Amino acid sequence: MLIKSVFIILLVGLFCQTSYAKDNCPTRKPVICYWASWAVYRPGQGAHKIENIDPSYCTHIIYTFAGIDMDGKLTSLDNHNDIVNGGYKKIVALKESNPCLKVMLAIGGWNEGSEKYSLLAETEESRKKFAEDVSRLMINYGFDGFDVDWEYPTQRGGIPADKENFVALLRALKERLKPRNRILSIAVSASVAVSKQAYDIEAICREIDFVSLMGYDMQATNATSIHSPLKLESSDPDDRETLDQIVYYYKSQGCPTQKIILGVPAYGRSFTLQNPQNNHVGAAVLGVGREGTFTREAGFLGYNEICDLKRTRSDWRNEYLERNAAVYGSINKLWVSYDDPKTIVAKAQYVLEENLGGMMIWSIDTDDFKGRCGQSAYPLLQAINKGLGNQLPSSFSHVDF
Questions:
Q1: Is position 207 annotated as part of the catalytic site?
Q2: Looking at 151, 233, 291, 354, which residue is catalytic?
Protein backbone atom coordinates (compact mmCIF):
# COMPACT_ATOMS: atom_id res chain seq x y z
CA MET A 1 0.00 0.00 0.00
CA LEU A 2 2.84 2.34 0.89
CA ILE A 3 4.61 1.60 -2.40
CA LYS A 4 1.38 2.29 -4.31
CA SER A 5 0.90 5.64 -2.53
CA VAL A 6 4.46 6.72 -3.27
CA PHE A 7 4.00 5.75 -6.92
CA ILE A 8 0.83 7.89 -7.17
CA ILE A 9 2.59 10.85 -5.56
CA LEU A 10 5.45 10.53 -8.02
CA LEU A 11 3.03 10.41 -10.94
CA VAL A 12 1.21 13.53 -9.73
CA GLY A 13 4.50 15.32 -9.27
CA LEU A 14 5.64 14.40 -12.76
CA PHE A 15 2.31 15.56 -14.22
CA CYS A 16 2.58 18.90 -12.45
CA GLN A 17 6.17 19.37 -13.60
CA THR A 18 5.23 18.55 -17.20
CA SER A 19 2.21 20.88 -17.19
CA TYR A 20 4.31 23.67 -15.77
CA ALA A 21 6.94 23.21 -18.47
CA LYS A 22 4.35 23.34 -21.26
CA ASP A 23 2.39 26.28 -19.89
CA ASN A 24 5.38 28.43 -18.91
CA CYS A 25 7.27 28.89 -22.12
CA PRO A 26 9.44 32.03 -22.17
CA THR A 27 7.73 35.14 -23.52
CA ARG A 28 9.37 35.75 -26.87
CA LYS A 29 8.58 37.57 -30.07
CA PRO A 30 7.81 34.91 -32.69
CA VAL A 31 10.76 33.81 -34.83
CA ILE A 32 9.46 31.80 -37.78
CA CYS A 33 12.18 29.58 -39.27
CA TYR A 34 11.69 28.05 -42.68
CA TRP A 35 13.76 24.97 -43.46
CA ALA A 36 14.32 23.94 -47.09
CA SER A 37 14.17 20.15 -47.01
CA TRP A 38 16.24 19.84 -50.22
CA ALA A 39 19.22 21.30 -48.32
CA VAL A 40 20.09 17.72 -47.32
CA TYR A 41 21.29 17.16 -50.92
CA ARG A 42 23.77 20.07 -51.01
CA PRO A 43 27.44 19.12 -51.34
CA GLY A 44 30.09 19.14 -48.65
CA GLN A 45 29.86 21.74 -45.90
CA GLY A 46 26.65 23.11 -47.41
CA ALA A 47 24.54 20.03 -46.66
CA HIS A 48 22.03 20.87 -43.93
CA LYS A 49 20.15 18.12 -42.14
CA ILE A 50 17.49 18.23 -39.46
CA GLU A 51 20.19 17.20 -37.00
CA ASN A 52 21.91 20.55 -37.75
CA ILE A 53 18.91 22.58 -36.55
CA ASP A 54 19.19 24.29 -33.18
CA PRO A 55 15.51 24.47 -32.13
CA SER A 56 16.16 26.94 -29.31
CA TYR A 57 16.52 29.85 -31.79
CA CYS A 58 13.03 29.45 -33.28
CA THR A 59 9.51 29.67 -31.91
CA HIS A 60 8.18 28.03 -35.10
CA ILE A 61 9.94 25.80 -37.62
CA ILE A 62 8.26 25.30 -40.99
CA TYR A 63 9.20 22.30 -43.13
CA THR A 64 9.10 23.04 -46.87
CA PHE A 65 7.44 21.97 -49.10
CA ALA A 66 4.52 19.64 -49.57
CA GLY A 67 2.50 19.95 -52.78
CA ILE A 68 -0.68 18.91 -54.52
CA ASP A 69 -1.36 16.78 -57.58
CA MET A 70 -3.69 17.76 -60.42
CA ASP A 71 -6.61 16.24 -58.52
CA GLY A 72 -5.98 18.61 -55.62
CA LYS A 73 -4.71 15.89 -53.31
CA LEU A 74 -2.07 16.77 -50.74
CA THR A 75 1.18 15.00 -51.59
CA SER A 76 4.84 14.81 -50.66
CA LEU A 77 7.17 16.38 -53.22
CA ASP A 78 10.04 14.13 -52.10
CA ASN A 79 8.68 10.87 -50.75
CA HIS A 80 12.13 9.47 -49.98
CA ASN A 81 13.22 12.48 -47.96
CA ASP A 82 9.89 13.26 -46.30
CA ILE A 83 8.49 9.79 -45.62
CA VAL A 84 11.00 6.98 -46.25
CA ASN A 85 13.91 8.82 -44.66
CA GLY A 86 11.63 10.18 -41.93
CA GLY A 87 11.89 13.92 -42.59
CA TYR A 88 8.42 14.67 -41.25
CA LYS A 89 8.95 12.60 -38.10
CA LYS A 90 12.45 13.97 -37.48
CA ILE A 91 11.37 17.62 -37.73
CA VAL A 92 8.47 17.08 -35.34
CA ALA A 93 10.82 15.28 -32.92
CA LEU A 94 12.69 18.58 -32.41
CA LYS A 95 9.95 19.40 -29.89
CA GLU A 96 11.54 16.85 -27.57
CA SER A 97 14.48 19.22 -27.00
CA ASN A 98 12.34 22.38 -27.09
CA PRO A 99 8.82 21.69 -25.77
CA CYS A 100 7.83 25.29 -26.55
CA LEU A 101 8.57 24.87 -30.26
CA LYS A 102 5.78 24.76 -32.86
CA VAL A 103 6.56 22.65 -35.94
CA MET A 104 4.56 23.28 -39.10
CA LEU A 105 4.35 22.02 -42.68
CA ALA A 106 4.26 24.37 -45.67
CA ILE A 107 2.67 23.72 -49.02
CA GLY A 108 3.48 25.42 -52.30
CA GLY A 109 6.49 27.55 -53.09
CA TRP A 110 7.61 29.12 -56.35
CA ASN A 111 8.36 25.88 -58.17
CA GLU A 112 4.88 24.48 -57.50
CA GLY A 113 3.39 27.24 -59.64
CA SER A 114 -0.12 28.62 -59.32
CA GLU A 115 -2.47 26.81 -61.71
CA LYS A 116 -3.01 23.69 -59.57
CA TYR A 117 -3.85 25.86 -56.59
CA SER A 118 -6.27 27.90 -58.64
CA LEU A 119 -8.12 24.68 -59.54
CA LEU A 120 -8.00 23.46 -55.93
CA ALA A 121 -9.57 26.65 -54.57
CA GLU A 122 -12.29 26.85 -57.24
CA THR A 123 -15.01 24.65 -55.71
CA GLU A 124 -16.37 24.07 -52.24
CA GLU A 125 -16.03 20.31 -52.69
CA SER A 126 -12.31 20.45 -53.58
CA ARG A 127 -11.60 22.91 -50.74
CA LYS A 128 -13.28 20.73 -48.12
CA LYS A 129 -11.60 17.56 -49.39
CA PHE A 130 -8.22 19.24 -49.26
CA ALA A 131 -8.82 20.58 -45.75
CA GLU A 132 -9.67 17.04 -44.62
CA ASP A 133 -6.41 15.74 -46.16
CA VAL A 134 -4.46 18.41 -44.32
CA SER A 135 -6.17 17.71 -41.02
CA ARG A 136 -5.39 14.00 -41.25
CA LEU A 137 -1.74 14.63 -42.09
CA MET A 138 -1.39 17.05 -39.16
CA ILE A 139 -2.70 14.39 -36.79
CA ASN A 140 -0.73 11.53 -38.35
CA TYR A 141 2.68 13.21 -38.03
CA GLY A 142 2.04 15.54 -35.10
CA PHE A 143 2.51 18.85 -36.91
CA ASP A 144 1.32 21.91 -34.98
CA GLY A 145 0.14 23.82 -38.01
CA PHE A 146 -0.07 24.39 -41.75
CA ASP A 147 1.44 27.17 -43.86
CA VAL A 148 0.08 28.03 -47.33
CA ASP A 149 2.57 29.49 -49.80
CA TRP A 150 0.56 29.86 -53.00
CA GLU A 151 2.63 32.01 -55.36
CA TYR A 152 0.34 33.74 -56.31
CA PRO A 153 -3.47 33.86 -56.52
CA THR A 154 -4.74 35.44 -59.80
CA GLN A 155 -1.25 35.20 -61.34
CA ARG A 156 1.07 32.76 -63.11
CA GLY A 157 -1.87 30.97 -64.72
CA GLY A 158 -4.47 31.84 -62.12
CA ILE A 159 -7.85 33.47 -62.68
CA PRO A 160 -9.41 36.66 -61.23
CA ALA A 161 -11.70 34.59 -58.98
CA ASP A 162 -8.61 33.30 -57.13
CA LYS A 163 -8.68 36.38 -54.94
CA GLU A 164 -12.04 35.41 -53.46
CA ASN A 165 -11.42 31.66 -53.67
CA PHE A 166 -8.20 31.96 -51.67
CA VAL A 167 -10.19 33.35 -48.75
CA ALA A 168 -12.65 30.47 -49.07
CA LEU A 169 -9.79 27.95 -49.09
CA LEU A 170 -8.32 29.44 -45.91
CA ARG A 171 -11.76 29.41 -44.29
CA ALA A 172 -12.17 25.70 -45.08
CA LEU A 173 -8.73 24.97 -43.60
CA LYS A 174 -9.50 27.01 -40.50
CA GLU A 175 -12.77 25.12 -39.92
CA ARG A 176 -10.86 21.82 -39.90
CA LEU A 177 -7.69 22.89 -38.08
CA LYS A 178 -8.92 25.23 -35.34
CA PRO A 179 -10.98 22.67 -33.38
CA ARG A 180 -7.77 20.64 -33.02
CA ASN A 181 -5.69 23.69 -32.04
CA ARG A 182 -3.60 23.72 -35.21
CA ILE A 183 -2.01 26.92 -36.49
CA LEU A 184 -2.88 28.30 -39.93
CA SER A 185 -0.55 30.77 -41.63
CA ILE A 186 0.34 32.04 -45.09
CA ALA A 187 3.40 33.45 -46.84
CA VAL A 188 2.74 36.31 -49.24
CA SER A 189 4.54 38.53 -51.71
CA ALA A 190 6.20 41.67 -50.36
CA SER A 191 5.17 43.58 -53.48
CA VAL A 192 2.29 46.04 -53.05
CA ALA A 193 1.47 45.70 -56.75
CA VAL A 194 1.24 41.90 -56.52
CA SER A 195 -0.70 42.05 -53.26
CA LYS A 196 -3.36 44.40 -54.62
CA GLN A 197 -4.14 41.92 -57.36
CA ALA A 198 -3.76 38.66 -55.40
CA TYR A 199 -5.15 39.20 -51.89
CA ASP A 200 -8.25 40.40 -50.08
CA ILE A 201 -6.06 41.30 -47.13
CA GLU A 202 -8.68 42.11 -44.52
CA ALA A 203 -10.49 38.85 -45.31
CA ILE A 204 -7.44 36.58 -45.28
CA CYS A 205 -6.18 38.09 -42.04
CA ARG A 206 -9.48 37.10 -40.38
CA GLU A 207 -8.89 33.45 -41.24
CA ILE A 208 -5.22 32.99 -40.30
CA ASP A 209 -3.01 33.18 -37.22
CA PHE A 210 -0.21 35.09 -38.94
CA VAL A 211 0.98 36.22 -42.37
CA SER A 212 4.67 36.19 -43.31
CA LEU A 213 5.71 38.94 -45.70
CA MET A 214 8.39 37.47 -47.96
CA GLY A 215 10.68 40.47 -47.69
CA TYR A 216 13.22 39.49 -50.33
CA ASP A 217 13.73 38.96 -54.08
CA MET A 218 12.74 42.57 -54.67
CA GLN A 219 15.77 43.31 -56.86
CA ALA A 220 15.79 44.75 -60.36
CA THR A 221 16.95 42.59 -63.25
CA ASN A 222 18.82 45.07 -65.44
CA ALA A 223 21.17 46.66 -62.88
CA THR A 224 22.56 46.04 -59.41
CA SER A 225 19.96 46.59 -56.69
CA ILE A 226 19.12 45.68 -53.12
CA HIS A 227 16.80 42.69 -52.86
CA SER A 228 15.49 43.30 -49.32
CA PRO A 229 15.27 47.08 -48.77
CA LEU A 230 13.61 48.25 -45.57
CA LYS A 231 13.07 51.92 -46.48
CA LEU A 232 13.94 54.17 -49.41
CA GLU A 233 17.44 55.59 -49.69
CA SER A 234 17.62 59.15 -51.00
CA SER A 235 19.08 57.77 -54.24
CA ASP A 236 16.26 55.26 -54.79
CA PRO A 237 13.57 56.04 -57.40
CA ASP A 238 10.18 57.00 -55.98
CA ASP A 239 8.53 53.87 -57.37
CA ARG A 240 10.99 51.53 -55.63
CA GLU A 241 9.10 49.06 -53.44
CA THR A 242 10.29 48.53 -49.86
CA LEU A 243 9.39 46.45 -46.83
CA ASP A 244 8.11 49.54 -45.04
CA GLN A 245 5.64 50.13 -47.87
CA ILE A 246 4.23 46.59 -47.79
CA VAL A 247 3.88 46.73 -44.01
CA TYR A 248 2.03 50.03 -44.26
CA TYR A 249 -0.21 48.60 -46.99
CA TYR A 250 -1.20 45.57 -44.91
CA LYS A 251 -1.98 47.81 -41.96
CA SER A 252 -4.04 50.15 -44.14
CA GLN A 253 -6.05 47.20 -45.47
CA GLY A 254 -7.11 46.12 -42.00
CA CYS A 255 -4.67 43.34 -41.12
CA PRO A 256 -4.03 43.36 -37.34
CA THR A 257 -0.48 44.47 -36.66
CA GLN A 258 0.31 41.49 -34.43
CA LYS A 259 -0.50 39.08 -37.26
CA ILE A 260 2.10 40.65 -39.56
CA ILE A 261 5.47 38.84 -39.61
CA LEU A 262 8.40 40.51 -41.38
CA GLY A 263 10.45 38.08 -43.47
CA VAL A 264 14.20 38.49 -43.97
CA PRO A 265 16.63 36.52 -46.16
CA ALA A 266 19.53 34.30 -45.15
CA TYR A 267 20.90 34.68 -48.67
CA GLY A 268 21.93 37.28 -51.21
CA ARG A 269 21.04 38.09 -54.81
CA SER A 270 24.04 38.46 -57.06
CA PHE A 271 24.98 40.06 -60.39
CA THR A 272 27.92 40.01 -62.79
CA LEU A 273 29.20 43.56 -63.25
CA GLN A 274 30.01 44.97 -66.67
CA ASN A 275 32.79 47.02 -65.11
CA PRO A 276 34.30 45.99 -61.74
CA GLN A 277 35.19 49.64 -61.10
CA ASN A 278 31.53 50.61 -61.30
CA ASN A 279 30.18 48.61 -58.36
CA HIS A 280 27.57 50.85 -56.78
CA VAL A 281 23.80 50.34 -56.65
CA GLY A 282 22.43 50.83 -60.15
CA ALA A 283 25.60 49.68 -61.90
CA ALA A 284 25.35 48.05 -65.32
CA VAL A 285 25.42 44.24 -65.32
CA LEU A 286 26.02 41.42 -67.76
CA GLY A 287 23.48 39.25 -65.95
CA VAL A 288 23.07 37.41 -62.68
CA GLY A 289 26.06 36.20 -60.69
CA ARG A 290 27.66 32.77 -60.87
CA GLU A 291 26.22 29.95 -58.80
CA GLY A 292 27.52 29.20 -55.32
CA THR A 293 29.45 26.11 -54.28
CA PHE A 294 26.66 24.84 -52.03
CA THR A 295 23.39 26.27 -53.35
CA ARG A 296 24.29 25.91 -57.05
CA GLU A 297 21.80 28.48 -58.34
CA ALA A 298 22.87 31.35 -60.57
CA GLY A 299 22.13 34.76 -59.04
CA PHE A 300 21.80 33.27 -55.53
CA LEU A 301 24.35 32.95 -52.72
CA GLY A 302 23.60 31.63 -49.25
CA TYR A 303 24.85 33.74 -46.35
CA ASN A 304 27.23 30.88 -45.55
CA GLU A 305 28.68 31.16 -49.06
CA ILE A 306 28.96 34.95 -48.81
CA CYS A 307 30.72 34.88 -45.46
CA ASP A 308 33.12 32.24 -46.81
CA LEU A 309 34.08 34.73 -49.52
CA LYS A 310 34.49 37.49 -46.96
CA ARG A 311 36.60 35.21 -44.79
CA THR A 312 38.93 34.02 -47.53
CA ARG A 313 39.29 37.05 -49.83
CA SER A 314 41.13 40.11 -48.60
CA ASP A 315 39.88 42.16 -51.56
CA TRP A 316 36.19 41.76 -50.61
CA ARG A 317 34.51 45.14 -50.10
CA ASN A 318 31.26 45.89 -48.20
CA GLU A 319 29.02 48.94 -48.29
CA TYR A 320 26.15 49.50 -45.84
CA LEU A 321 22.94 51.34 -46.71
CA GLU A 322 21.37 52.59 -43.50
CA ARG A 323 17.80 53.28 -44.66
CA ASN A 324 17.66 50.15 -46.81
CA ALA A 325 19.01 48.26 -43.78
CA ALA A 326 21.03 46.24 -46.27
CA VAL A 327 24.59 45.63 -47.33
CA TYR A 328 26.22 44.93 -50.66
CA GLY A 329 29.59 43.45 -51.37
CA SER A 330 31.75 42.98 -54.44
CA ILE A 331 34.86 41.24 -55.63
CA ASN A 332 36.04 41.58 -59.21
CA LYS A 333 32.86 41.23 -61.31
CA LEU A 334 30.76 39.57 -58.60
CA TRP A 335 28.25 41.88 -56.84
CA VAL A 336 25.76 40.74 -54.20
CA SER A 337 23.18 42.38 -51.94
CA TYR A 338 22.37 40.60 -48.70
CA ASP A 339 21.66 40.90 -44.99
CA ASP A 340 24.18 40.36 -42.21
CA PRO A 341 23.75 40.46 -38.41
CA LYS A 342 23.97 44.27 -38.37
CA THR A 343 21.17 44.79 -40.92
CA ILE A 344 19.06 42.01 -39.36
CA VAL A 345 19.18 43.77 -35.99
CA ALA A 346 18.09 47.00 -37.69
CA LYS A 347 15.08 45.22 -39.21
CA ALA A 348 14.27 43.65 -35.85
CA GLN A 349 14.23 47.10 -34.30
CA TYR A 350 11.79 48.18 -37.01
CA VAL A 351 9.54 45.24 -36.08
CA LEU A 352 9.49 46.47 -32.48
CA GLU A 353 8.88 50.09 -33.48
CA GLU A 354 5.95 49.12 -35.70
CA ASN A 355 4.63 46.62 -33.12
CA LEU A 356 4.63 43.80 -35.65
CA GLY A 357 4.04 40.21 -34.64
CA GLY A 358 7.59 38.97 -35.16
CA MET A 359 10.10 37.93 -37.81
CA MET A 360 10.53 35.14 -40.33
CA ILE A 361 13.71 33.92 -42.01
CA TRP A 362 14.10 32.14 -45.32
CA SER A 363 15.84 29.88 -44.72
CA ILE A 364 17.91 28.63 -41.80
CA ASP A 365 19.88 26.16 -43.94
CA THR A 366 21.80 29.01 -45.63
CA ASP A 367 22.69 30.80 -42.41
CA ASP A 368 26.26 30.14 -41.24
CA PHE A 369 24.97 27.07 -39.44
CA LYS A 370 28.41 25.60 -38.77
CA GLY A 371 29.95 28.81 -37.44
CA ARG A 372 32.66 28.80 -40.10
CA CYS A 373 32.80 32.59 -40.29
CA GLY A 374 32.51 33.59 -36.64
CA GLN A 375 32.59 32.46 -33.07
CA SER A 376 29.27 30.63 -33.09
CA ALA A 377 26.74 29.09 -35.45
CA TYR A 378 23.58 30.73 -36.85
CA PRO A 379 24.67 34.40 -36.61
CA LEU A 380 21.57 35.64 -38.47
CA LEU A 381 19.17 33.73 -36.23
CA GLN A 382 21.04 35.01 -33.22
CA ALA A 383 20.77 38.57 -34.58
CA ILE A 384 16.98 38.21 -34.99
CA ASN A 385 16.58 37.12 -31.39
CA LYS A 386 18.96 39.78 -30.13
CA GLY A 387 17.21 42.53 -32.08
CA LEU A 388 13.78 41.42 -30.85
CA GLY A 389 15.00 41.23 -27.26
CA ASN A 390 14.30 37.50 -26.98
CA GLN A 391 15.90 35.68 -24.10
CA LEU A 392 17.07 32.28 -25.22
CA PRO A 393 16.79 29.39 -22.77
CA SER A 394 20.16 27.88 -21.89
CA SER A 395 18.80 24.36 -22.17
CA PHE A 396 15.57 22.43 -22.48
CA SER A 397 17.13 19.11 -21.55
CA HIS A 398 15.73 19.18 -18.00
CA VAL A 399 12.15 18.92 -19.24
CA ASP A 400 10.88 15.38 -18.97
CA PHE A 401 7.84 14.26 -20.94
A1: no
A2: 151
